[in-house]
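Researcher: Please predict.
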Amino acid sequence: MTFAAPSLSPEHRHSQRCRLRLTWSPKYGPLLPVLGLQDKYDVFISYRQRGNRGLVMTLHPKLERHGLVTFVDTNNLETGVNFKRACMTALQNSTVTCPVVSVGAIHKMRSLDHLDTCDNVLLEWMAMLELQQLAHEHPDKVHLHRIIPLFLGSGWHDSNSHSLSVASASEYDSFDRMKRLAMTLPDVVNRKIIAALDQYFARVLHLPPPQQHKTVREVVLSLFDMDGITSFQYEVDRAMDASRIAERQQQQQQQQQQQQQQQQQQQQQHHSNHNSNSNSSNSSNSNHNSSSNHHSNHNSNSNGNHGSQRRQPQTAPPMSSSSPSVLPSSTSTTTTVSSFEPKLQAWLDHHSLLPQVAPALAEHDIDTLDDLVELVVGEMLTVQVLTDAGVTMGKANKLIRLAKQHHQEQQHSTGSSSSA
C-alpha cells in the first residue's frame, strides 16, 4: 500500500483541502477523512466523545459525500496542537456549526460550578454563540453565520462509553423533557471557560472579550430557542437516520449560501445606487452652475427689463399606468387553509401559526382541531414530524404545547360541567 501526494478535489472550493489518498483513491476517496486543520469549513460538529461518538462517526462521511467540508476533532486535530485554540479557530472559520445536544452531552454539565474545570463542549457552545454575534461586524475575521443544533435521543446514546444507560437516557426522549433537563443546569458562570474564551478573543481575534458572559444554563437553553434537527426515537436505524440528518444539513447549508449571495447582491446594488446618486448629484450641480451662469448673462443682456419677462410654470410629466404594482400571491396558502374547518383556522390564526403550519397539517390530512389535539396527545404528531414536514422547530414546539394546553382546558371544562 502506497500513499499518493495530497491533491485538491475540483468540486470543492477550499484552497487547502488535503486528503489522505490511497492508490485506489478514485474509488475510496470520499470515504477517507480530511486530516489536519483547513482554512475553511462548511460544517463544524461540536459533540461529547463519551456519549455521541457513534453519531459523529456515522454522520461525518455522509456530510462529506454531500460535498460539505466538515470539522471533527478526531480527524482534524493532530497530536501536539492546542486543543481549545484549534477548535475555536475552526469554529471561527466555519459557515455553519452543529452542536450535538443530548443527555450524554448535558449530563456532565450538571456538576459544573464557577470554579470547576473547563468543559470543552460548553466552551465550544459558548464560543459559537459569541462568534455568531460578531460575524456581521467583522466578516473578515469571523465566517460563522448559522447555528443548527442537533437534538438526539437515546437511539444515538453510546452507553458503552458513558456512565448513563440507554434506559436512563430514554427518559429524556422528547424535546420538552430534554429542555427541562437543561433548566436544571447550574445558573453560574464557569471562570475557567470564561478565561479561555477571553484569551482567544484577545490573542487570536484581537477583539475585546464579551462584556457579559452567559451562565452554564443560559448557554444550553439558548440552543433550544434555535431551529434545529431532532432525532428522539428509542430505536433508530442509524445509517438511515444519519443520511436524513446529512440531507437536512445540506439543505440548511444551501439556504445559508443563498442568503449570503442575496446579501452580497444587495450590498453591490446599494453600492451601485450610491455611486449613481453621487454622479447624479455632481451632474445636477454642474447643470445648476451652468444655469446660473446663463441666467446671469441673460440678466446682463436684458438691461434691467427682467421684470417684464415671466417664467412659464412647469408641468409634471404624466404618470405611467402601464406597470401597476402587483401584490404577492397567497393562492397556495389560501387553497390549503380552505380545507380546514373554521374552528381550526380561527385557533391557528389566533395563535399566529396559520401560515407556518398549514401546509404541514394539510400534508397529514389534519383538517379539524379535534384531530390535531388527539394526534398531539397520542404523541403521533410530534415536533420531529412537523420539522420533517418543513415547520421550523420554534413554531412546531409552540403548536404542540398549545394543543396540549387546549386538551387540558377541555378536560377541566368537562370536569367542571360534570360536577355542576
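Model: The CA atoms of residues 264 and 270 lie 10 Å apart.
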